[in-house]
Amino acid sequence: MATSIRLISTDFDGTLVGHTSQGRCVPELAEVLAAFKAGGGLWAINTGRSLEHVLEGVALFAAPVEPDFLLTHERELYHRDADGVWRDFGDWNRRCRERHEELARHAAGIFARVRELVSSAHDVTLLEENGVPAGLITADEAVMDRVAASLDALRHAVPKFHYQRNTIYLRFCHADYDKGSVLAELCRLIDVPRTHVFAAGDHFNDLSMLDGRHALHVACPANAIPEVKEVVRSAGGRVADANFGEGTALALAAALSDLGKRKPADVR
To answer: Does the residue 87 lie in any domain?
Structure first.
């Protein structure tokens, strides 16, 4: 398949598989992924899942081809060595962890306030790692909207304090590390310019890789939230009218066959 797209960066949950699906790769997506990889293309799964969790998902997904890179926790970067083991790619993960440890020290006051907010709410659960708040789970997305608004009111105290959210899950993070910045680092390491990158996602935590800064070709399935559809259209991308993996397959196939058109388009 002749194309100038050399790398595709796809979210996993909500973009390749439905949140309530059996987690299998749909035939339409299997076909386009196999053709893209056969032509020498590279595939990165860019997800909020941990490395272990995404590997479980990939095994269940059972695509005809394997991803070349795993971008996990919305910020970490892994590639698979010749022995089949997934390892850090470059020194990005080390630097990322150092910056987050530094942020945790500076954000102690914010985290204390977060603990107060959670202690008075029956519909919010605090997640901690090594005694440091790592994220939140809420009862539903309406509660998450309320929680995000409260966090936004606190963020001014520590400018680099940020968060990533997807449905009822939220992860605290350094503002410089997200799906977009880790995609940019991958592109730097493998020498692929943004003009040769396709990215697809469906939720808030995907916005940083869908705004055109790190991928020229962007898309989302029909199930994407309105904020994602708006960003994708503003970046000249494609909004499919099919959900999850089928919609992503339609958008990717359209991008591969119609690279000369740079205007917003709904895929039919």
So the answer is: no
